[in-house]
Design a protein that fits this description.
Blueprint (H helix, E strand, L loop, with lengths): L1 H4 L5 H20 L7 H26 L2 H8 L2 H12 L6 H18 L8 H24 L7 H24 L7 H28 L2 H6 L3 H13 L6 H16 L30 H5 L10
Helix pairs in contact: 2-3, 2-8, 2-9, 3-7, 3-8, 4-6, 4-7, 5-6, 5-7, 6-12, 8-9
Length: about 300
């Protein structure tokens, strides 16, 4: 969408037009504003998630081939899996770390071609964007969502804050919007309404319901969907390598939603207490209590 319809070399303007109108529309629909500590939390999340991530995303898409930029975005689940250890004090989930790595490999097989080239600024933008989004995912899980605020209102807070943060830099650096033909207007409407308001509303609702590392793996759908649209819309054809990578990435996405099986409790030793995180649980087994071996006999 960015490379086909939007004016080139205007990442700040593209980010502003994607965020601010959608954010204001969401506020009108939800009719609620942040309150208390949610003002500064919305500022932090909106700045990282919209004010920083959007320009970095557009910059990476402009400076790098689409496949290279998508591969950097696919690194996000790995970053989330590591950040939950530091921010949420969870145990490292090696299961999802493994599948996250395989998902990156699969995405790379789908979108990277022989003409893939690296641009220094594009690489930095791609990696920085992945880091920003990973922090947003983890902080959103840590802070939750205030009672009485729906996903549309919550997304609207961040889109509006991010748009306000982008307003002055976009005007000072790139000037007023130009080159907005019918295709560009259509592209901005799609990115703002569907790729902004609807997508973020669903995303934040999913983050509230699902484990954070499992939700982060859903980010693999973005480059896979873009590749599929290239086949359907632009008439591109998958090679056997791309088909194999597509299958690997989908397998990683599905497997990452599953919890690895735990071994059953032993009848000769008490089950170990598990910590928080991937295998959180930690209650003493009823089976152990029922079959606990008798202690030594006591003399009268």
């Amino acid at each position: 969408m960015t490379t086909e319809l939007l004016p080139p070399d205007r990442p700040l303007t593209a980010s502003l037009l994607r965020a601010l109108p959608a954010g204001l529309l969401a506020l009108l629909i939800a009719q609620c504003l942040p309150h208390g500590h949610w003002w500064w939390r919305s500022l932090v999340l909106g700045t990282l998630n919209i004010g920083a991530f959007f320009p970095l995303l557009f910059l990476a898409a402009e400076r790098l081939p689409g496949g290279v930029a998508a591969t950097f975005g696919a690194v996000q689940p790995l970053l989330v899996t590591l950040l939950v250890v530091v921010v949420l004090s969870e145990r490292l989930c090696r299961w999802r770390l493994l599948w996250g790595g395989l998902g990156v490999v699969g995405v790379g097989m789908v979108v990277l071609g022989p003409a893939a080239a690296l641009d220094g600024l594009g690489v930095v933008a791609g990696l920085a964007g992945a880091v920003c989004m990973a922090f947003v995912v983890v902080l959103t899980k840590r802070w939750g969502r205030p009672d009485g605020v729906g996903p549309v209102g919550y997304a609207g807070w961040q889109l509006a804050v991010g748009g306000v943060v982008l307003l002055l830099p976009a005007i000072l650096v790139e000037g007023p919007p130009t080159g907005l033909d019918a295709g560009a207007v259509l592209g901005h409407l799609w990115l703002g309404l569907v790729g902004g308001l609807v997508a973020y509303g669903l995303w934040f609702d999913g983050l509230r319901r699902l484990p954070v590392t499992a939700t982060a793996l859903l980010g693999l759908l973005s480059p896979l969907t873009a590749a599929l649209m290239g086949v359907v819309v632009l008439g591109q054809v998958f090679t056997w390598t791309q088909l194999g990578g597509y299958g690997l990435a989908l397998a990683a996405l599905v497997a990452g939603q599953l919890e690895p099986r735990r071994r059953g409790p032993s009848l000769t030793s008490p089950p170990a207490e598990s910590g928080r995180g991937c295998l959180a649980g930690g209650r003493r087994s009823i089976l152990w209590e029922a079959h606990r071996p008798p202690g030594p006999a006591t003399l009268p």
